[in-house]
Amino acid sequence: MSTTTAPDREAPAGERLADWADGRLGLYALAKTNMRKIFPDHWSFMLGEVSLYSFIIIILTGVYLTLFFHPSMNEVVYHGSYVPLQGIRMSEAFNSTVNISFDVRGGLLIRQIHHWAALIFLAAMFVHMMRVFFTGAFRKPREVNWLFGFLLFVLGMFTGFTGYSLPDDLLSGTGVRFMEGAILSVPVVGTYLSMFLFGGEFPGGDFVARFYSIHILLLPGIMLGLVAAHLILVFFHKHTQFAAPGRTEKNVVGMPLLPIYMAKAGGFFFLVFGLIAIVAAIATINPIWAIGPYRPDQVSTGAQPDWYMGFSEGLIRVMPGWEINFAGHTLVLGVFIPLVIFPLVLAAIAVYPFLEAWVTGDRREHHIADRPRNAPTRTGFGAAWISWYFILLVGGGNDIWATHFHLSINNITWFVRIAFFVVPVLVFIATKRVCMGLQRRDAEKVLHGRESGVIKRLPHGEFVEVHTPLNQAERFKLTAHEQYQPLEVGEAVDENGVERKLPRGEKLRARLSKGYYGEGNQIPKPTAEEYKEITSGHGHH
Amino acid sequence: MSQDTPPEEKLPSEQTHGPLARGEEDPFADPGLPPHLPRIQDIDERAAKRSERTVALLFVISMLATIAFIASYVAFPIDKIVYIFPFGHVSILNFALGITLGIALFCIGAGAVHWARTLMSDREVPDDRHAIESPPEVRAKVMQDFSEGVAESGFGRRKLIRNTLFGAMALVPLSGVMLLRDLGPLPEKKLRATMWAKGKQLINMNTKQPLRPEDVAVGSLTFAMPDGLKETDEDFQEQIAKAALMIVRIQPDEIKDKRELDWSHQGIVAYSKICTHVGCPISLYEQQTHHVLCPCHQSTFDLSDGAKVIFGPAGHPLPQLRIGVNGQGNLEALGDFDQPVGPAFWERG
Fold it and tell me: Which residues, if any, are the signal sequence (chain A) (predicted)?
């Protein structure tokens, strides 16, 4: 409340509450900068929102599930209402999951929302990450936020894995066994790690309880912190925006948080939640009652992990089974190499922003998002990485591809082994060329205008197509991007003929810079002179 | 560090479009924010009213859907399965709860978004950005404060304190590491031995009866476990994870590997069921070729040739169990596997 003399009439209750809070939390300073904060609008900005909202949905439904789930591997005999499983021995974890599905009203729905939301969470993060990548939104000052986002994706994968392992069903148990086999392959300490993780020999009686604390406490706790940091940085940096009239590096053009984005983004949460609830109502996911409880000596065909683990599955499936035996020891390269490549696949995309910053040497802030075509090498890298990822997904589902398309599993495996090395290169080259083509078309459009489809016959018989010139706004948009000049290291010898010592890596940097921005790697923007010459009437297009 | 930054002229300056003669107009110049175009709701009050009614209708539908959710929860039995086109046979309770909850949530969202898009101001306004970097005087102040603070602590001067602090900080996490020791036992030889031993009868996994040679037909695949292991045993899962056995009968003249023939009984061979790749149970048998395939990662082993790997990611053959027949005519093991079963590991040797 105000420290000045009490007013004659009291302020409304809401205001008084706000005053109370401000006196203790200093809310007004925060609200002053944020309540009417401007957000730019673009459809691709909602991808991150989908991730955020599905994360919230996962937490809400996850808390509900903990009320009924028993994270224990004690063996019980099932006596619940699902007849086909009655009398079967299973762990309490599996038993309680079946109970959630068949004896708790709405339990199945919440389980399915939880699982669907997890798949969507990872997918949304993946696509959001690609949006940020292809538009160069990871550039200064957002590199740290890129890493936060990347960590969220990786932690999300492991939270998903530990989560779907909890019901202790035959499918997820097979996945856990695969993980144990991979851990065993670690040189020197593999068996120790496995014994410590499982509390003894696989499967033991501990891993569900341990995965449970990792799944509901450790990883989500870290993720919650990262999400908060990610959002604070988004607010602090403000969004990127695409080049358009009136939008510069120094401003952000859009609509205010209150009321537009409160309503739009807030409403979007309900849209996402509603759609996931409807999906959970009509599409069964992870029917553990049909899969059955885990037994290490049983398995089903067509076993697949959740999609985000598929690329690691691909690595392990297509790797040749190399084993080196020496001095009484075994180096299980056939499993250990995939285990090492697994984080490298992810790291490749995580470190890219730093590589690009090093090549350009650019230390300015960037708030105007690139159109992917205007950064052909980056776009090529991104597309190559995606192709790499998807090739591994094909490898991870080689049996599914074989049975659905009547192909030989051996051929698919060999295809993936070769494609792992070849396809990213081809995709890189093709993407870069496509980008260059699009840049050329943009330049053409700026100089000559848009093809109108009207064919005109000139007096001397020549046919020409009439081009409609672009308006200034469109011309600005298509020429607003920046173009770097390739870095030059200069002559190998100085003016006295003495060999110049170049710092280590500088040559590589120059070569990369040439590959990025050298001749033939970007189409020069049309210049004002070119434009004047063409539009001054000498040309007839 | 100077090499890190290319000469400034290499960096593109913002929005240059080639050299311009003095006084000439840049054809690519930024024309500035376009004027705001009014929506139909901005100029026609009737349209605005229509939007208002649409938004309200969506919110009302949401309310009705929540009531329907509660009604479904009370009305539908949990075990009732109905046929709903095109979803097939579904639990009516799950279906009704999900659809009503979905509609209740979706309509709130749709209403809010429609409200924002049609009735709230859609005027785009610019807001200034401020450099993330702190101004030089702030930087200077922070650096100075830091130096003063460090100097006052004597951190750099009193090296003895500093070094012992580093030592203490480096050691203290060891307690935490130590506490992890009891997460599990040491591996020792645990992965090397299974329950199989000389004289253990092979028990048919399905019938729980001792296997006799005449039970194993050519072309069939039989799974077995060691005598004395029960599903109710405390350590059943750990034991079966190593001891699971698959048994096939191959015409002795079709067995290419000499040791395999020696360790078989009348063409009946027993191999570990646990894949040597990452430990999935192998369960697909091609009776014509005697190949077995692991359904997880498609490692393929030739059971007529010492279970050699003929395709896939497995690194070594499946271990074979030496079997014979005991006095009662039942199949029995003549010892444990001669090598560890399942995935390879460092100490496997």
Answer: none
